[in-house]
Design goal:
With 195 residues, the chain is mainly α. The protein has helices spanning 12-22, 29-41, 48-64, 72-99, 105-117, 121-132, 141-149, 156-168, 177-189. Helix 4 crosses helix 5 (105-117), helix 5 (105-117) runs parallel beside helix 7 and helix 7 (141-149) runs parallel beside helix 9. The termini are far apart. Residues 1-194 form the Fanconi Anaemia group E protein C-terminal domain.
Length: 195
Amino acid sequence: PPELSILSSCSPSQLQGLCSFLQLSTCPEPLLVRFCSWLLALTPDLSYTSAATLAEQLFLRRVLSLTQPPSRHLMAALTSFCSKYSHPFCCVLVAAVLQEPGEGAEQTKLMCELVEECLEPHSVQLLLSQVLEVPLSEKFLPVLQAVLGRQEVLPPELLDLLVLTLCQQAPAFTTSLSYAKLVAAVLTAYQSQVS
């Protein structure tokens, strides 16, 4: 709809107010899918700040409250949004998931799925750097495994950080099979760069 062009000209606070007025954070998921498809058609593209605001308003509450796998509608909306705005999405959603206490099994599975199927290579690198900024836990090992599964060429500084993090935190994972698999995957994928 042509009215959506207003999203490009709103300030972040106006955009938050508009999202609240439209109740986007709680709208039914089929409508969320349609809204995200409209966002893809917007020209010009949304600014980084506007996209980050929308990522927060549209998805943050839904993702953090997941207690079972996301519905196909929510996955379709996430995939659609990430296809164009994966960088602001990672900065908002991934950061929030990483700071959530507890197991967060569904959030971890969702992050793995996004890494494997949706995110652009530069966004995968951003997600990896975000994960490496927090203390490693069993919760995030599958996400690192998913990143390695993409077989992306990592910048040397990011690979160094990954290896250093794995070495420094090894004592906490002496009985972890997931950690052992992760180390084996790093050594296999980057054997020429890891001494």
